[in-house]
Design brief:
It contains five helices and two strands; from the N terminus they run E-E-H-H-H-H-H. By secondary structure, the chain is mainly α. The protein has two domains: 32 residues, no CATH class; 61 residues, 5' to 3' exonuclease, C-terminal subdomain (DNA polymerase, domain 1), CATH 1.10.150. It has a two-stranded antiparallel ribbon. The longest helix is centred in the C-terminal third of the chain and has 11 residues. The chain is elongated, with a radius of gyration of 15 Å. The termini are far apart. It comes from Planococcus citreus.
Length: 96
């Protein structure tokens, strides 16, 4: 049985419903989505996981292994092809 959604209000006054304990406001997440770059193409949980680790450039991303990135809460296997493509286009790779 799915968990019941509860009404929440973020610090910016946005009202939204969530069934999980995740405190992230979906409205704020959409407003803060980058307009370009590799972070734009990721899901909000994956983007937030990278940003929490201060991984905001491809150069910083290349300092991590695929295993390191997948270990971050919010990053799943579907994110890897996007990340690999951007690394390749920039002449970079994940750390081995």
């Amino acid at each position: 049985m799915p968990a019941e959604k509860t009404l929440r209000i973020c610090d910016h006054g946005h009202r939204y419903y969530k069934s999980s304990d995740c405190p992230t406001c979906p409205v704020c997440n959409e407003e803060n989505k980058p307009q370009r770059g590799f972070l734009r193409e990721l899901s909000a949980p994956a983007r937030n996981a990278l940003l929490q680790q201060q991984i905001d450039t491809l150069e910083k991303l290349s300092g991590y292994s695929e295993k390191d990135i997948l270990a971050l809460h919010g990053v799943g296997p579907a994110s890897l092809p996007v990340l690999k493509q951007h690394l390749t286009e920039a002449g970079l790779t994940f750390k081995t």
